[in-house]
Amino acid sequence: NAGVTQTPKFRVLKTGQSMTLLCAQDMNHEYMYWYRQDPGMGLRLIHYSVGEGTTAKGEVPDGYNVSRLKKQNFLLGLESAAPSQTSVYFCASSYGGVGSYEQYFGPGTRLTVT
Amino acid sequence: AQKITQTQPGMFVQEKEAVTLDCTYDTSDQSYGLFWYKQPSSGEMIFLIYQGSYDEQNATEGRYSLNFQKARKSANLVISASQLGDSAMYFCAMREGLNTGGFKTIFGAGTRLFVKA
Known about the structure:
The complex is a heterodimer.
Chain A: E1 4-7, E2 10-13, E3 19-25, E4 31-37, E5 43-49, E6 56-57, E7 64-67, E8 73-78, E9 87-94, E10 104-105, E11 109-113
Parallel strand pairs in A: 2-11
Antiparallel strand pairs in A: 1-3, 3-8, 4-5, 4-9, 5-6, 7-8, 9-10, 9-11
Chain B: E1 4-5, E2 10-14, E3 19-21, E4 24-25, E5 32-39, E6 46-52, E7 60-61, E8 64-69, E9 74-79, E10 88-96, E11 105-107, E12 111-116
Parallel strand pairs in B: 2-12
Antiparallel strand pairs in B: 1-4, 3-9, 5-6, 5-10, 7-8, 8-9, 10-11, 10-12
């Protein structure tokens, strides 16, 4: 089991460029999430998905789009990158439904926008 | 309103001693879960321990225990017999709506723990 994987691990973009971050999980989890982590602010939820074909906005969705065409994949897109989007991005997945369950995280993607 | 508060930006502890990392939370939900994650310098997020709001006993996982005080809305992490490898950032998190399939997890700002040899 690879768990949750993210590609790429590092990326440098210029302002205005676009890119897509890929998250993949092999645990058959229903729920998937994208977070960003900034110094002193913990993790903030960008977008999430509760199942294949569904997506929804989290706390800080502006400037990002997502898609979940396959259950195992969750893509995060930046259409026109801005320096304020410099951050570390984490993907996570978890079981869905009622009950307790922890989230499993990917290794993170460090994105710098110049 | 901030729902998860970790008031200690940084903590130092001597190797082999115990340390408590504070976490307070705010919710009006009756069914919620509290989590602690560890983030070492390598960057990955590692799940440590979970406490449900209806659990009567404090959760324990090896050297980790969660001191859950529901009336005070606190969920402090206690690490016993600290090791050098415990040096990391620690995040407290909460998920509301456990009995209705709630899925949003809110994270605190974190506490950086330094273990001294």
